[in-house]
Write a structure and sequence with these properties.
CATH class of the domain at 103-121 and 130-260: Alpha Beta
CATH superfamily of the domain at 103-121 and 130-260: Succinyl-CoA synthetase domains
Number of strands: 13
Subunit structure: Heterooligomer composed of large and small subunits.
CATH topology of the domain at 103-121 and 130-260: Rossmann fold
Enzyme class: hydrolase
Distance between the termini: 140 Å
Organism: Advenella mimigardefordensis (strain DSM 17166 / LMG 22922 / DPN7)
CATH architecture of the domain at 103-121 and 130-260: 3-Layer(aba) Sandwich
GO molecular function: exodeoxyribonuclease VII activity; nucleic acid binding
Protein name: Exodeoxyribonuclease 7 large subunit
Oligomer: single chain
Order of helices and strands: HEEEHEEHEHEHEHEHEHHHHEEE
Helix content: 40-55%
Shape: elongated
Length: 435
């Protein structure tokens, strides 16, 4: 015999073990968002309904909150609520109905682009610090355009805006967006581009997940900011753009500094420049005062120089007179000393004459010896000079490298040789020996 609680527990175990986790699609009704963060709702279709619960730990992972009337797909386990004996779906994840295939395509495109490095932060360009002209790619009727224009007008009225109109939703939207982006690249008239539109479902934003568009964004020469959808919306364009903004308004705020901030910065720099300039003026004013105090008038300078010149002339005259008197006295003393000590030169003159005679004889003897030695050496050199034999009909044979050839067997047929004779040289060629 089982109690009701035991029965429900056994049935609950059978459900959990016998039914695997599965996907169920239906329409939301009776949606309740409890203060605990849990979601309670009923999933129904035209013929049946089932209660569902999604606990707080799972709900925080979603980027949207379903409402009654929404069609959704849920991934859930089948469980039994034992106190009432009702079976229910314990939801682990959910998505908008029909998004399964689109989401899988989204993940596949992102994986391909990431593998190619197009999502790497290292390849993304920095935004210009002071954009003078901003390009906006969006629909002329989009609320996002008005948000961007309002933000730019409020923050930076000095910045020019160029709009590249395009559809942002529909079958041909991706092609039109690529055309607008290509036009912006070709015209090259803006410093930064904004790609914006308002929020919507994945189907509404699917144009911004186009792979060809993503590659064109990655190749853009102009920095591009993506502001598509709301904070919880993500598209492939967000990942390849140089910067992702959570909203179109935020995108506009990211590409331009507020005009007042720039004016405040300019005012601060002007104030710093003024203070620096004032300090420089004070510094050079003090320096000028010091130099002025040291400055002497030309008349005073001439008078002082004239006094110094007169004094120098007097000193020079006195010095010259004193020097002349000293030298006259010294000359007189030297003359007296010379008269008392006249040298005896006759003996020295005879000795010098004797030495000169001896020197002449020695020089003649040495010259004769050297001449005889030179003649002997010249005779020996002439005897051993190899070219002396050339006069007797001999010759010296050289090869192309200037080496003397002594052995005819070492010569080759057709080889060019140089023959040195007594009266000159002559080139010859070796011919085969016909004998």
């Amino acid at each position: 015999m089982l109690s009701v609680a035991q029965l429900n527990r056994r049935v609950g175990r059978l459900l959990e073990e016998g039914v695997p986790t599965l996907w169920v699609t239906g329409e939301v009704s009776n949606f309740v968002r409890a203060s605990s963060g849990h979601w309670y709702f009923t999933l129904k279709d035209e013929r049946a309904s089932v209660r569902a619960v999604m606990f707080r730990g799972k709900t925080t992972q979603l980027d949207f909150v379903p409402a009654s009337g929404d069609r959704i797909d849920v991934r859930a386990r089948v469980t039994l609520y034992e106190p009432r004996g009702d079976y229910q779906l314990q939801v682990e994840s959910l998505r908008r109905a029909g998004q399964g295939n689109l989401y899988e395509q989204f993940l596949a495109i992102r994986a391909r682009l990431q593998e190619e490095g197009l999502l790497d932060a290292s390849r993304k360009r920095s935004l210009p610090a002071f954009a003078r002209r901003i390009g906006v790619i969006t629909s002329l009727g989009a609320a996002a355009l008005q948000d961007v224009l309002s933000a730019l007008t409020r923050r930076a009225p000095h910045v020019s805006i160029v709009i590249y109109p395009t559809a942002v939703q529909g079958r041909d939207a991706a092609t039109e967006i690529m055309s607008a982006l290509a036009q912006a690249q070709m015209r090259n008239e803006v410093d930064v581009l904004l790609l914006v539109r308002g929020g919507g479902s994945m189907e509404d934003l699917w144009s911004f997940n186009d792979e060809a568009l993503a590659r064109l964004i990655a190749a853009s020469r102009i920095p591009l900011v993506s502001g598509v959808g709301h904070e919880t919306d993500f598209t492939i364009a967000d990942f390849v753009a140089d910067l992702r903004a959570p909203t179109p308004t935020a995108a506009a705020e990211l590409v331009c500094r507020p005009r007042q901030d720039i004016l405040n910065e300019i005012a601060g720099l002007t104030d710093r420049l003024s203070r620096h300039q004032q300090r420089m003026l004070e510094h050079y004013s003090l320096r000028l005062d010091r130099l002025t105090g040291r400055l002497v008038s030309p008349a005073q300078k001439i008078r002082a120089d004239r006094v110094r010149v007169v004094h120098a002339i007097r000193q020079l005259d006195a010095g010259v007179r004193t020097g002349l008197t000293y030298k006259r006295n010294r000359v007189a003393l030297l003359n007296q000393a010379l008269e008392h000590s006249a040298p005896q030169v006759a003996h020295a003159r005879n000795r010098v004459a004797t030495l000169l005679t001896r020197l002449d004889r020695a020089a003649d003897r040495i010259i004769s010896q050297q001449q005889r030695r030179f003649e002997r050496t010249h005779t020996q050199f002439t005897a051993i000079n190899p070219r002396a034999v050339l006069g007797r009909g001999y010759a010296i044979v050289y090869d192309e490298a200037g080496r003397v050839q002594r052995d005819p067997a070492a010569l080759q047929d057709g080889q060019t040789l140089k023959v040195e004779l007594e009266k000159g040289t002559q080139q010859v060629r070796v011919i085969p020996n016909r004998s």
